[in-house]
Amino acid sequence: MSFSKWIGAAIGWSFGGPLGAIIGMALGGIVDGITDGDGSPLLGERQSDRRGSRDPYRQQRTSQSQQRPRTQSGDFEVSLLVLASIVIKADGKQDQRELDFVRQQFTNMYGKERANHAFKLFKNVTKQTISTRQVCTQIRVMMDHPSRLQLIHFLFGIAKADGIVTEDELKQIYTIAGYLNISNRDFESIKAMFYNSSDNAYKILEISKSVTDDEVKKAYRRMAKKYHPDRVSHLGKEHQAGAEEKFRQVQQAYEHIQKERGFK
């Protein structure tokens, strides 16, 4: 797949608003005059769309009653690239293990060729100064809640790639989660999947240790539904592995509490 075809596949609502400006600048550092199938400048056309009435981000902001557009794999990929670049710079340095994690995750999700294109773009994105609030506002407006939860899970994976989530990284992910309208309970649930402590199983299920066995069972059913991989099936099979990992951790948390309390 050529670079221009890959970009063409990745373009959706993410090529409007601040995300589009960031990706456009990153593309400018890679190739000059990318063209689409009819030979016209691909980037130039999309920049024109952003200025015109067809900009989906602008339309969504001005009409809250308008239906949220369906997030596709490319939109998720672009959002991931930008947010990952923010987290990876949170502690003032770019650890090679974190960069390797990003590349490996892209390879696992998209295959080697597409991952190479994405990582090339990612490295140019990391060179930019990005407004976290503006980017997250666009993602919050345009992206469904299950997909936003998946973004937070991935960001914790990046931060943990070097063996520890630093305080600066944690604060940055917390800030991103807030801008994405992720509740504190959901944030703590995903965070607990990357830490080892005696009450992590309860945090993953978003309950306290004082709840009854019946409440544990109800919490498990609720969380299994919230994190079920089918909730992000619209993103494509490439994102199922991450969703399945969250779902698996919910199951493991429930089994841990079952064993600890001795109920079935």
From TrEMBL:
Q: Do you know which Gene3D superfamilies this protein is assigned to?
A: DnaJ domain, TerB-like
Q: Looking at the Swiss-Prot or TrEMBL record, what is one Pfam family this protein matches? A: DnaJ
Compositional bias, Low complexity, is annotated for 59-73
Q: SUPFAM superfamilies in the record, alphabetically?
A: Chaperone J-domain, TerB-like
Q: Which PROSITE patterns match?
A: DNAJ_2
Start-end of Basic and acidic residues biased regions: 46-58
Annotated ranges, domain J: 200-264
Give the domain of life.
Bacteria
Location of region: Disordered? 38-73
PANTHER family in the record:
CO-CHAPERONE PROTEIN DJLA (PTHR24074)
Quote the protein name from its UniProt record: TerB family tellurite resistance protein
Taxonomic lineage from the root: Bacteria, Pseudomonadati, Bacteroidota, Flavobacteriia, Flavobacteriales
